[in-house]
Write a structure and sequence with these properties.
Strand order of the largest sheet: 3-2-1-28
Structural class: mainly beta
Largest sheet: 4 strands, antiparallel
Strand content: 35-45%
Number of helices: 6
Length: 369
């Protein structure tokens, strides 16, 4: 009976399986494997929480560590990145966007499905540039398609000057995954180009028609690009000169800021009407003490988030804090994830990580790009 089920019915059943269970189902027979690979991917955003991926912060790795929230376990997974080392930027529809590990190499981005090891380089930009800010927008994120529909924006960076040497590049380019091409869409203030090149860690958030980056120099500030008008704006950050760390993440479609002060709280703000920051949450005291190990220093803390979940972390071996939407309870709750000190009995050395949150997609996400 199971072997003769129609594809659409079988795909609907598959949509309720967690990624690890789906992987086992795909290995059952050719019919199930074909169904899982070539139909619309299951809506894991609806049925299952995102996985936390931990990659070495400096890039150049052949494997990474993944936390399965279903059974609270860590796994080592090989990463198919081709011959050149790369540094992770962000996730998009089950894929990871990568850039070169060095700031002196002309930018060429690539995407990889970390669970199937499929890898693909994006075309070269129209203007060769090093170390620009990179922003990502997923189009129709709730629509189930085999290949994600997205755009990448590249702003600033260093390019070759007409008389030799290098200069700050005051233009912005956009990549469209549907056409697989880059387009120069306009100019930008040189001041913004300099700050995005020197002081931006490349985490971006898209909210209400604006693509935002945070500058990492104290005092912190947020820079935004209005997609529809090609205008730039700058936002102040609450307690900007007192924050030891700060990051921007999306939450329910809104721009959200996370930051912590010396010997103080880690707070979460949401951008409201009139570009006003409203505080919406603080890290609970008990979890703050546990996360900081009794110390008051937030300095090495990092934050990653996608809609529905955000995570505070430091390194692979230390515990991590997750604030996640619990849909059936209608509220957000805090969770603790133990760091990864061993996998299947093999001890790991501690190292700083780049954290990513991703809904695994076991389908052929790169075939139609």
């Amino acid at each position: 009976m199971w072997n003769n089920l129609p594809f659409d019915l079988l795909a609907n059943i598959f949509s309720f399986l967690s990624p690890d269970s789906l992987a086992r189902a795909m290995s059952a027979c050719r019919h199930w494997h074909t169904c899982a690979n070539y139909l619309a991917p299951p809506d894991t955003r609806r049925n299952h929480p995102a996985w936390l991926l931990a990659l070495p912060a400096r890039g150049g790795t052949l494997s990474y560590y993944a936390h399965n929230p279903i059974d609270n376990s860590w796994h080592t997974i090989p990463l198919g990145l081709g011959p050149n080392p790369a540094r992770p930027l962000a996730t998009i529809g089950g894929l990871i966007l990568f850039r070169p590990t060095t700031t002196t190499t002309a930018l060429q981005l690539a995407v990889c499905n970390p669970f199937t090891t499929q890898f693909r380089r994006l075309p070269m930009l129209n203007i060769a540039r090093t170390n620009p800010a990179v922003g990502l927008i997923e189009l129709d994120p709730t629509h189930q398609v085999a290949s994600p529909n997205f755009r990448v924006y590249v702003a600033g960076g260093m390019s070759e000057a007409s008389r030799g040497g290098a200069t700050y590049e005051p233009t912005l380019e956009m990549y469209d995954s549907k056409s697989d091409t880059w387009t120069i869409i306009g100019s930008m203030p040189v001041e913004f180009s300099v700050r995005l090149t020197v002081w931006t860690p490349n985490e971006s958030v898209y909210s209400n028609g604006v693509l935002y980056w945070m500058t990492s120099a104290r005092a912190y500030s947020v820079m935004g690009f209005e997609i529809g008008t090609n205008n730039w704006r700058e936002l102040n950050v609450p307690m900007a000169d007192r924050l030891e760390f700060a990051a921007i993440v999306p939450r329910n479609g809104k721009l959200t800021l996370v930051g912590g002060t010396v010997n103080g709280d880690a707070c979460i703000w949401e951008l409201g009407e009139g570009e006003r920051w409203d505080i919406i949450e603080k890290v609970p005291f008990e979890l703050r003490v546990r996360f900081l190990k009794g110390k008051g220093n937030w300095g090495s803390t990092k934050c990653v988030g996608i809609d529905g979940i955000m995570c505070l972390y430091r390194d692979i071996g230390s515990g991590m804090l997750v604030w996640r939407e619990v849909v059936d309870k209608g509220r957000w709750e805090w969770f603790w994830i133990e760091g990864c000190s061993s996998v299947k009995g093999k001890q790991l050395q501690n190292f700083p990580i780049k954290g990513l949150l991703l809904h695994p997609n076991l389908g052929s996400s790169l075939q139609n790009m």
